[in-house]
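Sequence and structure are kept together here, with a separate record for every protein. An example record follows, reproduced without changes.
>
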Amino acid sequence: MSTQTTAAPSQLPDYLASATPNPSANRAPWFTNTAPTFAGVFLWFIFWNSVSSSGLSTGGLWPSIIGIVVAALICHFLFYLAPGLLGMKTGLPLYVVGTSTFGSIGGLIMPGFLMGALQFGWLGVNSWGSATFLKESFGGGDGMFYALCVIWAVGAAFVGLKGIQYVAKVATFLPIIPLAVLIIGLVLFGGSAFSYKPTAEPAASGGAMTTILLIVTYIVGFFATAGAAGVDFGTNSRDGDDVKKGGYVGILAAIVLTAVISVLVVAGARASGAIDGTVVNMTDALATKLSPGFFKAVMIGLTLASFPGACFSSFIAANSFKTVMPKVNPLVSVGIGTIVSIALAVTGYAGDLPSVFGIIGASFGPICGAMTADYILNGYRWSGPRAGFNPAGWVAWALGFFVGVMPNLHKVESLANAIPDVPAAPVVAYVVGFVVYAVCFKIGVKTPVLDMPKRIDA
Protein backbone atom coordinates (compact mmCIF):
# COMPACT_ATOMS: atom_id res chain seq x y z
CA MET A 1 0.00 0.00 0.00
CA SER A 2 1.82 3.10 -1.20
CA THR A 3 1.14 6.64 -2.27
CA GLN A 4 2.92 5.89 -5.55
CA THR A 5 -0.31 4.28 -6.74
CA THR A 6 -3.06 6.68 -7.78
CA ALA A 7 -6.56 5.31 -8.16
CA ALA A 8 -9.01 6.44 -10.83
CA PRO A 9 -11.35 9.34 -10.07
CA SER A 10 -14.33 7.03 -10.64
CA GLN A 11 -13.51 5.45 -7.29
CA LEU A 12 -14.23 8.72 -5.49
CA PRO A 13 -17.29 8.68 -3.22
CA ASP A 14 -19.98 11.13 -4.30
CA TYR A 15 -19.29 13.58 -1.47
CA LEU A 16 -15.65 13.88 -2.59
CA ALA A 17 -16.40 14.01 -6.31
CA SER A 18 -18.78 16.91 -5.71
CA ALA A 19 -16.53 18.83 -3.28
CA THR A 20 -15.59 22.25 -4.64
CA PRO A 21 -12.79 24.42 -3.20
CA ASN A 22 -13.71 27.81 -1.80
CA PRO A 23 -12.46 30.26 -4.46
CA SER A 24 -10.08 33.09 -3.62
CA ALA A 25 -12.78 35.66 -4.44
CA ASN A 26 -14.76 34.47 -1.41
CA ARG A 27 -11.90 34.82 1.05
CA ALA A 28 -11.19 37.70 3.41
CA PRO A 29 -8.49 39.11 5.74
CA TRP A 30 -7.74 37.29 8.99
CA PHE A 31 -9.17 40.07 11.16
CA THR A 32 -12.62 39.65 9.63
CA ASN A 33 -13.03 35.89 10.12
CA THR A 34 -10.45 33.66 11.84
CA ALA A 35 -9.26 35.98 14.60
CA PRO A 36 -12.64 37.23 15.90
CA THR A 37 -14.24 33.78 15.67
CA PHE A 38 -11.49 32.07 17.65
CA ALA A 39 -11.32 34.96 20.12
CA GLY A 40 -15.02 34.51 20.74
CA VAL A 41 -14.35 30.90 21.76
CA PHE A 42 -11.97 31.99 24.51
CA LEU A 43 -14.18 34.85 25.67
CA TRP A 44 -16.75 32.23 26.73
CA PHE A 45 -16.94 32.67 30.49
CA ILE A 46 -17.14 28.94 31.20
CA PHE A 47 -13.57 28.74 29.84
CA TRP A 48 -11.85 31.61 31.63
CA ASN A 49 -13.92 31.50 34.80
CA SER A 50 -12.49 28.11 35.76
CA VAL A 51 -8.87 28.42 34.60
CA SER A 52 -7.65 29.51 38.02
CA SER A 53 -8.98 26.30 39.55
CA SER A 54 -6.41 24.40 37.51
CA GLY A 55 -3.50 25.09 39.85
CA LEU A 56 -3.30 28.56 41.39
CA SER A 57 -3.43 27.15 44.92
CA THR A 58 -0.84 24.50 44.10
CA GLY A 59 1.93 26.38 42.36
CA GLY A 60 1.14 30.06 42.64
CA LEU A 61 0.72 32.89 40.17
CA TRP A 62 3.78 32.66 37.93
CA PRO A 63 3.51 28.92 37.23
CA SER A 64 -0.14 29.52 36.35
CA ILE A 65 0.81 32.26 33.88
CA ILE A 66 3.60 30.10 32.41
CA GLY A 67 1.14 27.23 32.00
CA ILE A 68 -1.28 29.52 30.15
CA VAL A 69 1.43 30.76 27.78
CA VAL A 70 2.73 27.24 27.11
CA ALA A 71 -0.81 26.01 26.43
CA ALA A 72 -1.45 28.93 24.04
CA LEU A 73 1.72 28.11 22.09
CA ILE A 74 0.75 24.43 21.86
CA CYS A 75 -2.76 25.27 20.70
CA HIS A 76 -1.52 27.54 17.93
CA PHE A 77 1.58 25.77 16.64
CA LEU A 78 0.66 22.12 17.16
CA PHE A 79 -3.12 21.87 17.03
CA TYR A 80 -4.16 24.69 14.70
CA LEU A 81 -1.42 25.70 12.27
CA ALA A 82 -1.17 22.64 10.01
CA PRO A 83 -4.97 22.17 9.75
CA GLY A 84 -5.35 25.90 9.05
CA LEU A 85 -2.74 25.81 6.27
CA LEU A 86 -4.34 22.69 4.79
CA GLY A 87 -7.68 24.47 4.63
CA MET A 88 -6.10 27.54 3.05
CA LYS A 89 -4.14 25.56 0.44
CA THR A 90 -7.01 23.30 -0.61
CA GLY A 91 -10.05 25.47 0.01
CA LEU A 92 -11.78 22.30 1.19
CA PRO A 93 -13.54 21.59 4.52
CA LEU A 94 -12.34 19.29 7.29
CA TYR A 95 -14.42 16.27 6.33
CA VAL A 96 -12.73 16.32 2.87
CA VAL A 97 -9.19 17.21 3.96
CA GLY A 98 -9.31 14.54 6.68
CA THR A 99 -9.63 11.80 4.03
CA SER A 100 -5.90 11.99 3.31
CA THR A 101 -5.33 10.82 6.89
CA PHE A 102 -8.27 8.48 7.49
CA GLY A 103 -9.35 7.46 3.99
CA SER A 104 -12.21 8.32 1.65
CA ILE A 105 -14.64 6.15 3.61
CA GLY A 106 -12.97 6.40 7.01
CA GLY A 107 -12.95 10.20 6.79
CA LEU A 108 -16.72 10.25 7.06
CA ILE A 109 -16.38 8.77 10.53
CA MET A 110 -13.11 10.40 11.54
CA PRO A 111 -13.11 13.36 11.78
CA GLY A 112 -16.50 13.87 10.08
CA PHE A 113 -19.00 12.13 12.34
CA LEU A 114 -16.83 12.47 15.47
CA MET A 115 -16.61 16.24 15.05
CA GLY A 116 -20.39 16.47 14.85
CA ALA A 117 -21.00 14.09 17.75
CA LEU A 118 -18.62 15.86 20.11
CA GLN A 119 -20.33 19.18 19.39
CA PHE A 120 -23.30 17.88 21.32
CA GLY A 121 -20.98 17.38 24.27
CA TRP A 122 -20.11 21.07 23.94
CA LEU A 123 -23.78 21.94 23.71
CA GLY A 124 -24.32 19.98 26.93
CA VAL A 125 -21.53 21.89 28.69
CA ASN A 126 -22.89 25.20 27.45
CA SER A 127 -26.44 24.33 28.51
CA TRP A 128 -25.33 23.13 31.93
CA GLY A 129 -23.21 26.22 32.63
CA SER A 130 -25.80 28.67 31.35
CA ALA A 131 -28.67 27.01 33.21
CA THR A 132 -26.63 26.82 36.41
CA PHE A 133 -25.75 30.50 36.48
CA LEU A 134 -29.20 31.68 35.38
CA LYS A 135 -30.82 29.56 38.09
CA GLU A 136 -28.49 31.04 40.71
CA SER A 137 -29.09 34.57 39.42
CA PHE A 138 -32.85 34.22 39.70
CA GLY A 139 -32.80 32.13 42.87
CA GLY A 140 -34.60 29.20 41.27
CA GLY A 141 -34.60 25.53 42.15
CA ASP A 142 -33.97 22.28 40.31
CA GLY A 143 -37.14 22.65 38.27
CA MET A 144 -35.92 25.92 36.82
CA PHE A 145 -32.51 24.38 36.12
CA TYR A 146 -34.00 21.47 34.18
CA ALA A 147 -36.30 23.76 32.20
CA LEU A 148 -33.44 26.12 31.33
CA CYS A 149 -31.27 23.22 30.15
CA VAL A 150 -34.01 22.13 27.75
CA ILE A 151 -34.82 25.64 26.51
CA TRP A 152 -31.16 26.53 26.02
CA ALA A 153 -30.22 23.35 24.14
CA VAL A 154 -33.33 23.31 21.94
CA GLY A 155 -33.03 27.02 21.14
CA ALA A 156 -29.36 26.72 20.18
CA ALA A 157 -30.04 23.63 18.06
CA PHE A 158 -32.83 25.47 16.23
CA VAL A 159 -30.61 28.46 15.40
CA GLY A 160 -27.76 26.15 14.37
CA LEU A 161 -30.05 24.26 11.99
CA LYS A 162 -31.22 27.52 10.42
CA GLY A 163 -27.68 28.32 9.23
CA ILE A 164 -24.51 30.27 9.90
CA GLN A 165 -26.13 33.61 8.97
CA TYR A 166 -28.50 33.26 11.92
CA VAL A 167 -25.64 32.26 14.22
CA ALA A 168 -23.74 35.36 13.11
CA LYS A 169 -26.72 37.56 13.94
CA VAL A 170 -26.74 36.49 17.58
CA ALA A 171 -22.91 36.67 17.84
CA THR A 172 -22.21 40.20 16.62
CA PHE A 173 -22.15 42.24 19.84
CA LEU A 174 -22.56 39.79 22.72
CA PRO A 175 -18.79 38.99 23.07
CA ILE A 176 -18.32 42.57 24.28
CA ILE A 177 -19.95 41.57 27.59
CA PRO A 178 -17.32 39.04 28.78
CA LEU A 179 -14.52 41.36 27.65
CA ALA A 180 -15.98 44.17 29.74
CA VAL A 181 -16.36 41.86 32.75
CA LEU A 182 -12.71 40.77 32.48
CA ILE A 183 -11.61 44.41 32.45
CA ILE A 184 -13.79 45.19 35.49
CA GLY A 185 -12.25 42.28 37.38
CA LEU A 186 -8.74 43.38 36.48
CA VAL A 187 -9.39 46.92 37.68
CA LEU A 188 -10.85 45.69 40.98
CA PHE A 189 -8.23 43.07 41.90
CA GLY A 190 -5.27 43.24 39.51
CA GLY A 191 -3.23 45.54 41.74
CA SER A 192 -2.98 42.93 44.51
CA ALA A 193 -2.35 39.89 42.30
CA PHE A 194 1.43 39.75 42.47
CA SER A 195 1.46 39.77 46.24
CA TYR A 196 -0.49 36.50 46.31
CA LYS A 197 1.28 33.48 47.81
CA PRO A 198 -0.17 29.96 47.82
CA THR A 199 -0.48 28.31 51.20
CA ALA A 200 2.52 26.20 52.16
CA GLU A 201 0.79 22.83 52.19
CA PRO A 202 -0.68 22.79 48.66
CA ALA A 203 2.46 24.41 47.26
CA ALA A 204 4.59 21.63 48.70
CA SER A 205 2.23 18.89 47.49
CA GLY A 206 2.43 19.71 43.81
CA GLY A 207 4.64 22.62 43.00
CA ALA A 208 5.10 24.67 39.89
CA MET A 209 5.31 21.83 37.37
CA THR A 210 2.03 20.32 38.54
CA THR A 211 0.31 23.66 38.06
CA ILE A 212 1.78 24.11 34.57
CA LEU A 213 0.72 20.62 33.48
CA LEU A 214 -2.77 21.00 34.91
CA ILE A 215 -3.37 24.25 33.07
CA VAL A 216 -1.93 22.88 29.81
CA THR A 217 -4.25 19.87 30.11
CA TYR A 218 -7.29 22.07 30.73
CA ILE A 219 -6.68 24.59 27.94
CA VAL A 220 -5.47 22.17 25.26
CA GLY A 221 -8.33 19.77 25.99
CA PHE A 222 -10.76 22.67 25.68
CA PHE A 223 -9.26 23.75 22.35
CA ALA A 224 -8.72 20.37 20.64
CA THR A 225 -11.81 20.29 18.41
CA ALA A 226 -11.32 23.94 17.44
CA GLY A 227 -7.78 23.08 16.33
CA ALA A 228 -9.02 20.50 13.84
CA ALA A 229 -11.75 22.93 12.76
CA GLY A 230 -8.89 25.21 11.74
CA VAL A 231 -9.22 23.52 8.35
CA ASP A 232 -12.63 25.12 7.89
CA PHE A 233 -11.36 28.49 9.07
CA GLY A 234 -8.42 28.18 6.68
CA THR A 235 -10.72 27.87 3.68
CA ASN A 236 -11.62 31.52 4.24
CA SER A 237 -7.98 32.68 4.46
CA ARG A 238 -6.29 34.33 1.48
CA ASP A 239 -2.78 33.09 2.21
CA GLY A 240 -0.46 31.64 4.86
CA ASP A 241 -0.04 35.00 6.56
CA ASP A 242 -3.79 35.19 7.13
CA VAL A 243 -3.73 31.72 8.70
CA LYS A 244 -0.84 32.60 11.00
CA LYS A 245 -2.00 36.08 11.99
CA GLY A 246 -5.50 34.80 12.67
CA GLY A 247 -4.00 32.26 15.05
CA TYR A 248 -1.62 34.71 16.70
CA VAL A 249 -4.48 37.04 17.61
CA GLY A 250 -7.50 34.73 17.86
CA ILE A 251 -5.72 31.87 19.67
CA LEU A 252 -2.40 32.92 21.23
CA ALA A 253 -3.35 36.43 22.32
CA ALA A 254 -6.95 35.52 23.19
CA ILE A 255 -5.93 32.63 25.45
CA VAL A 256 -3.29 34.67 27.23
CA LEU A 257 -5.57 37.69 27.62
CA THR A 258 -8.65 35.93 28.99
CA ALA A 259 -6.99 33.22 31.07
CA VAL A 260 -4.26 35.41 32.58
CA ILE A 261 -6.76 38.11 33.57
CA SER A 262 -8.95 35.49 35.25
CA VAL A 263 -5.99 34.13 37.23
CA LEU A 264 -4.85 37.63 38.18
CA VAL A 265 -8.31 38.50 39.46
CA VAL A 266 -8.57 35.41 41.67
CA ALA A 267 -4.99 35.84 42.91
CA GLY A 268 -5.63 39.51 43.69
CA ALA A 269 -8.89 38.74 45.46
CA ARG A 270 -7.15 36.17 47.65
CA ALA A 271 -4.19 38.43 48.38
CA SER A 272 -6.49 41.28 49.40
CA GLY A 273 -8.56 39.03 51.64
CA ALA A 274 -11.73 39.46 49.59
CA ILE A 275 -11.99 35.66 49.21
CA ASP A 276 -10.27 32.72 50.86
CA GLY A 277 -8.20 29.99 49.24
CA THR A 278 -11.17 27.74 48.61
CA VAL A 279 -12.75 30.11 46.09
CA VAL A 280 -11.49 29.37 42.58
CA ASN A 281 -13.77 31.21 40.16
CA MET A 282 -13.36 34.79 39.01
CA THR A 283 -17.08 35.49 39.14
CA ASP A 284 -17.14 34.52 42.83
CA ALA A 285 -14.44 37.12 43.43
CA LEU A 286 -16.49 39.75 41.60
CA ALA A 287 -19.46 38.99 43.85
CA THR A 288 -17.53 40.36 46.84
CA LYS A 289 -17.10 43.82 45.27
CA LEU A 290 -20.11 44.39 43.04
CA SER A 291 -23.55 45.27 44.35
CA PRO A 292 -26.01 42.34 44.29
CA GLY A 293 -28.06 43.95 41.54
CA PHE A 294 -25.08 44.72 39.33
CA PHE A 295 -23.56 41.27 39.91
CA LYS A 296 -26.84 39.65 38.93
CA ALA A 297 -26.87 41.71 35.73
CA VAL A 298 -23.26 40.69 35.03
CA MET A 299 -24.03 36.98 35.40
CA ILE A 300 -27.11 37.22 33.20
CA GLY A 301 -25.08 39.11 30.61
CA LEU A 302 -22.27 36.54 30.66
CA THR A 303 -24.76 33.73 30.26
CA LEU A 304 -26.53 35.38 27.33
CA ALA A 305 -23.15 36.02 25.70
CA SER A 306 -22.48 32.26 25.73
CA PHE A 307 -25.54 31.50 23.58
CA PRO A 308 -23.76 32.11 20.22
CA GLY A 309 -21.22 29.45 21.18
CA ALA A 310 -24.02 26.96 21.73
CA CYS A 311 -25.51 27.90 18.36
CA PHE A 312 -22.13 27.52 16.66
CA SER A 313 -21.66 24.02 18.12
CA SER A 314 -25.11 23.07 16.83
CA PHE A 315 -24.31 24.50 13.41
CA ILE A 316 -21.09 22.47 13.13
CA ALA A 317 -22.91 19.33 14.28
CA ALA A 318 -25.72 19.85 11.77
CA ASN A 319 -23.28 20.34 8.88
CA SER A 320 -21.26 17.27 9.88
CA PHE A 321 -24.34 15.07 10.10
CA LYS A 322 -25.73 16.36 6.80
CA THR A 323 -22.46 15.31 5.17
CA VAL A 324 -21.95 11.89 6.73
CA MET A 325 -25.66 10.96 6.85
CA PRO A 326 -27.17 12.73 3.82
CA LYS A 327 -30.25 10.48 3.74
CA VAL A 328 -31.16 11.20 7.37
CA ASN A 329 -33.35 14.23 8.02
CA PRO A 330 -31.22 16.77 9.95
CA LEU A 331 -34.14 17.37 12.30
CA VAL A 332 -33.84 13.73 13.36
CA SER A 333 -30.05 13.51 13.69
CA VAL A 334 -29.66 16.90 15.38
CA GLY A 335 -32.75 16.22 17.50
CA ILE A 336 -31.23 13.01 18.86
CA GLY A 337 -27.96 14.83 19.54
CA THR A 338 -29.82 17.60 21.35
CA ILE A 339 -31.55 15.06 23.58
CA VAL A 340 -28.12 13.67 24.49
CA SER A 341 -26.92 17.22 25.25
CA ILE A 342 -29.89 17.81 27.53
CA ALA A 343 -29.27 14.51 29.33
CA LEU A 344 -25.60 15.43 29.91
CA ALA A 345 -26.63 18.85 31.23
CA VAL A 346 -29.48 17.88 33.58
CA THR A 347 -27.54 14.96 35.10
CA GLY A 348 -24.53 17.19 35.79
CA TYR A 349 -22.08 15.07 33.78
CA ALA A 350 -21.44 18.06 31.51
CA GLY A 351 -20.31 20.02 34.57
CA ASP A 352 -17.29 17.77 35.16
CA LEU A 353 -15.12 19.99 32.97
CA PRO A 354 -11.76 18.22 33.48
CA SER A 355 -13.29 14.89 32.40
CA VAL A 356 -15.15 16.45 29.45
CA PHE A 357 -12.07 18.31 28.21
CA GLY A 358 -10.02 15.15 28.78
CA ILE A 359 -12.24 13.09 26.47
CA ILE A 360 -12.30 15.82 23.83
CA GLY A 361 -8.52 16.20 24.00
CA ALA A 362 -8.06 12.42 23.79
CA SER A 363 -10.34 12.30 20.74
CA PHE A 364 -8.90 15.17 18.74
CA GLY A 365 -5.31 15.26 19.99
CA PRO A 366 -4.28 12.28 17.83
CA ILE A 367 -6.38 13.56 14.92
CA CYS A 368 -4.45 16.85 14.88
CA GLY A 369 -1.17 14.98 15.37
CA ALA A 370 -1.80 12.54 12.53
CA MET A 371 -3.01 15.30 10.17
CA THR A 372 0.08 17.37 10.92
CA ALA A 373 2.37 14.39 10.24
CA ASP A 374 0.53 13.70 6.97
CA TYR A 375 0.89 17.34 5.94
CA ILE A 376 4.63 17.40 6.62
CA LEU A 377 5.38 13.98 5.07
CA ASN A 378 3.59 15.00 1.87
CA GLY A 379 5.86 18.00 1.39
CA TYR A 380 3.68 20.53 3.25
CA ARG A 381 0.73 19.93 0.94
CA TRP A 382 -2.44 17.86 0.83
CA SER A 383 -1.89 14.48 -0.83
CA GLY A 384 -5.53 14.01 -1.76
CA PRO A 385 -7.98 11.45 -0.41
CA ARG A 386 -6.74 7.95 0.27
CA ALA A 387 -8.83 4.93 -0.60
CA GLY A 388 -11.15 3.27 1.91
CA PHE A 389 -9.89 3.26 5.48
CA ASN A 390 -6.30 4.46 5.66
CA PRO A 391 -4.73 2.21 8.35
CA ALA A 392 -1.99 4.71 9.25
CA GLY A 393 -4.56 7.23 10.45
CA TRP A 394 -6.72 4.76 12.31
CA VAL A 395 -3.85 3.05 14.13
CA ALA A 396 -2.43 6.47 15.08
CA TRP A 397 -5.81 7.62 16.39
CA ALA A 398 -6.54 4.44 18.35
CA LEU A 399 -3.21 4.46 20.17
CA GLY A 400 -3.32 8.22 20.72
CA PHE A 401 -6.87 8.09 22.05
CA PHE A 402 -6.02 5.31 24.50
CA VAL A 403 -3.10 7.29 25.89
CA GLY A 404 -5.14 10.49 26.00
CA VAL A 405 -8.06 8.95 27.87
CA MET A 406 -5.84 7.29 30.51
CA PRO A 407 -6.47 10.02 33.14
CA ASN A 408 -10.23 9.46 32.78
CA LEU A 409 -9.77 5.70 33.18
CA HIS A 410 -7.43 6.28 36.12
CA LYS A 411 -10.30 7.94 37.99
CA VAL A 412 -12.25 4.67 37.93
CA GLU A 413 -11.50 3.02 41.25
CA SER A 414 -11.13 -0.48 39.83
CA LEU A 415 -8.67 0.76 37.18
CA ALA A 416 -6.66 3.24 39.25
CA ASN A 417 -3.77 0.84 39.87
CA ALA A 418 -3.70 -0.54 36.33
CA ILE A 419 -4.00 2.70 34.33
CA PRO A 420 -1.47 5.52 34.88
CA ASP A 421 -2.52 9.15 35.23
CA VAL A 422 -0.76 10.62 32.19
CA PRO A 423 0.16 14.32 32.64
CA ALA A 424 -0.90 16.76 29.90
CA ALA A 425 -2.70 13.84 28.25
CA PRO A 426 -4.12 15.77 25.23
CA VAL A 427 -0.59 16.83 24.27
CA VAL A 428 0.77 13.30 24.75
CA ALA A 429 -2.11 12.00 22.62
CA TYR A 430 -1.10 14.48 19.90
CA VAL A 431 2.51 13.30 20.02
CA VAL A 432 1.49 9.63 19.86
CA GLY A 433 -0.80 10.33 16.90
CA PHE A 434 1.98 12.22 15.09
CA VAL A 435 4.70 9.63 15.70
CA VAL A 436 2.59 6.53 14.99
CA TYR A 437 1.22 8.03 11.77
CA ALA A 438 4.73 8.97 10.61
CA VAL A 439 6.02 5.46 11.30
CA CYS A 440 3.10 3.80 9.50
CA PHE A 441 3.50 6.21 6.58
CA LYS A 442 7.21 5.49 6.24
CA ILE A 443 6.82 1.71 6.29
CA GLY A 444 3.99 1.80 3.76
CA VAL A 445 0.97 1.07 5.95
CA LYS A 446 -1.30 3.32 3.94
CA THR A 447 -3.83 3.07 1.15
CA PRO A 448 -3.32 4.58 -2.34
CA VAL A 449 -4.28 8.15 -3.15
CA LEU A 450 -7.41 8.71 -5.22
CA ASP A 451 -7.27 11.20 -8.08
CA MET A 452 -9.33 14.29 -7.23
CA PRO A 453 -9.45 16.78 -10.12
CA LYS A 454 -11.06 19.72 -8.30
CA ARG A 455 -8.04 21.02 -6.39
CA ILE A 456 -6.31 24.36 -6.11
CA ASP A 457 -3.17 23.40 -4.08
CA ALA A 458 -2.32 27.01 -3.31
Observations:
- DSSP finds 23 helices and two strands in the chain.
